[in-house]
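Q: My labmate handed me this sequence with no annotations at all. I'd like to see what the chain might look like in three dimensions before we decide whether it's worth expressing. Could you predict it?
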Amino acid sequence: MKKRTIVCFGPGPRFKGGMQNYNTSLALALDKEEQNNVHIVSWTQQYPAIIPREFVDKSSTTDLLEGSGVKVTYLTNYNNPLSWIETAKYIISLQPEMITFQWSIALQGLPMAHIAKQLRKAGIHVVFDIHFVIQKEHSSIDKFLTKYALKHASSFVVHALHTYDELKTVFPERSFGLVDKLDIHEKKYTSVVKLYHPIYDLYKPISNFNVEEEKAKLGLKKHVFLYFGFIRKYKGLDLAIQAFAELCKERDDVSFLICGESFWKTLDDTKWSTKLKQLLFGWAKKLVLRKSDDEREDNPLEWIDKLGVQENCVVFNRFISNEELPKFFQVSDAAVLFYRTATPSGIESLSYNFKMPILATKVGHFPETIVDGFNGYLAEANDIQSMKDQMVRFLESPINRDNVAKATENMSWKNYANAICNYE
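A: Here is what I predict for the chain of 424 residues:
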């Protein structure tokens, strides 16, 4: 059987965050097909050097690619345009049939546009796997960078119908066709494959895990709600804490387990290099971002002390390593995603991996993936009373975890990989 080469462009396993998990999972899924020769081509630096944040995972020790045939090359430096040229040449030298680009932030539009343009000239099918079109934090140049990069796509993958609608508004002159599987030979229109955010399988539950023993170690009560992942304003942790505080007025057998680092608090503020980055980044943000969208000083954890629920909240305000991750999901009963805005969520997918019900808001794609009362409960957006009511509903009518498994049974990485590379 003739091998075909597929390249997954995006952050490699050494980085933190959902895009690394996603790109690595996609590569591993493609690698399981015998005819595929899979490469990850990764950034060395994903963003402008002035951004005051640590993006590299310095905590995890597990090799996520162990036992696979996936090859990874760290090559693309956002801050060095010569590396963009080198990246395009390297990918072309691999002679791939197809490349997937993970599109999750407009800021990366310049390097991605250059690379994608060169690859299309070389006859390579360029797929942009878009996690959003209209960015959560709007800036004056986002629209330009989005259109500048995405115009070089041969095909697209979207995870929600509203993302498809947004794509059509950005390119009203382009003819799109919504399909279930990618056909790289389609010429009549630009294919947009409607899929989903697959269920992560990188992290396995700990066998023989003693839930009650671990709860005692962590100081958790009978019922545990979980917030997991980067702490960012759009994720609504401040609203979730306020809703939880209302719940605590009625019951004392509940805990809120909060695990994740504050997105803009990952560097040592005492270092001169950090101070310089913060100064330069602050100036840059004033030029392109509305003041209301600047979240650097946002600290939702303050609400715990303000509302006096310290004894009911257990907080790990740091990056959680791959090795630690499973236990926090295994001691919890439901994941809380009371987001202000949402694109398909890696945390939702991660929760489903542990068959965990979701409490979310009626924003973004959540009404597409969560059936209220079946695999989770849905609250009104920005409504603290509604959020508290969903917590009460969950406690009074727990979601059967078999329902969660049933609702997500077709959302595997295998099915996802087949949809984008099962072509002749």
